[in-house]
């Protein structure tokens, strides 16, 4: 895994993956990289010695955070600056790379910007911070819906 991280840094430096925010999640052979400025998700394949771009997936906004489910079956991508200025968390199948779900995020004004995302060890809940309203949104991943909003003010 250390080689993958070093490889990602080289990709950022030499091939222009978006900076300042590079977020990634990895299995043993696949790395998912959120590219904020180009508004896409890079899928990289790692064969033990080489890391190569396999595919780019266009996002509906700027991907700020990329996390894997504990069983490595799903990839969650927190995106801000979508068409309606509402944040979303897109859910992708980690093997087919198909989008299989979307968790909307919106504050009382209809604006949001998901930034940090964490999934519980059992994979049943996702916590996402919204930097627009200082709240944490808690999602039930079994039913793919918002279950609670925690006010941090």
Write the layout of secondary structure elements.
Layout: H1 2-15, E1 22-26, E2 30-35, E3 40-46, E4 51-58, E5 62-68, E6 74-80, E7 87-93, E8 99-105, E9 114-119, E10 125-130, E11 135-140, E12 145-151
Antiparallel strand pairs: 1-2, 2-3, 3-4, 5-6, 6-7, 7-8, 9-10, 10-11, 11-12
Which terms would index this structure?
mainly beta, 9% helix, four-stranded antiparallel beta sheet, 1 helix, 153 residues
What does this structure look like?
The structure is a single chain. The protein is 9% helix and 52% strand. With 153 residues, it is mainly β. The radius of gyration is 15 Å and the shape is globular.
Determine the structural class based on helices, strands and strand pairing: mainly beta
- Main pleated sheet: 4 strands, antiparallel
Number of strands: 12
Mean pLDDT value: 80
Low-confidence stretches: 12-21
Shape type = globular
Measured distance between first and last alpha carbons: 38 Å
- What percentage of the residues does DSSP assign to strands (E)? over 45%
CA-based gyration radius: 15 Å
Count of helix runs: 1
Which sequence of strands runs across the widest sheet?
Answer: 1-2-3-4
H/E series, N to C? HEEEEEEEEEEEE
Helix share of residues? under 10%
């Amino acid at each position: 895994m250390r080689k993958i991280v070093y490889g990602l840094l080289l990709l950022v430096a030499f091939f222009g993956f978006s900076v300042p925010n590079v977020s990634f999640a990895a299995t043993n052979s696949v790395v998912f990289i959120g590219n904020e400025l180009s508004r896409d998700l890079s899928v990289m394949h790692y064969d033990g010695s080489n890391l190569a771009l396999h595919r780019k997936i266009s996002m509906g906004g700027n991907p700020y955070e990329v996390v894997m489910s504990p069983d490595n079956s799903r990839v969650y991508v927190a995106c801000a600056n979508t068409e309606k200025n509402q944040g979303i968390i897109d859910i992708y199948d980690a093997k087919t790379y198909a989008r299989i779900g979307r968790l909307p995020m919106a504050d009382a004004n209809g604006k949001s910007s998901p930034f940090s995302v964490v999934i519980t060890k059992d994979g049943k809940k996702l916590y996402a911070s919204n930097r627009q309203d200082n709240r944490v949104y808690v999602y039930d991943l079994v039913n793919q819906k918002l279950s609670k909003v925690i006010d941090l003010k």
